[in-house]
Amino acid sequence: MSVVVVNVALKPEILDPQGRAVLGALGRLGLSGVADVRQGKQFVLNIDGEIDAAKLAQIHEIASTLLSNPVIEDFTVEVQA
Description:
Layout: E1 2-10, H1 17-28, E2 40-47, H2 53-67, E3 73-80
Antiparallel strand pairs: 1-2, 1-3
């Protein structure tokens, strides 16, 4: 079994109100020195068998069409053995 992690986050130019709210809360809780907070989401896919080039391409396609909104979000795909 292989594990594929897809991390999705807002593009840097897109405002992140949830990240701003967390940033404000961190200061009120006494954590100083945090310059910025960006929120995102993570999908962990457990795949039977090995991940070959065709399967990885399929995962990238799914990440760009189903798991993320390419207009406002970027994603990364990480294969863990």
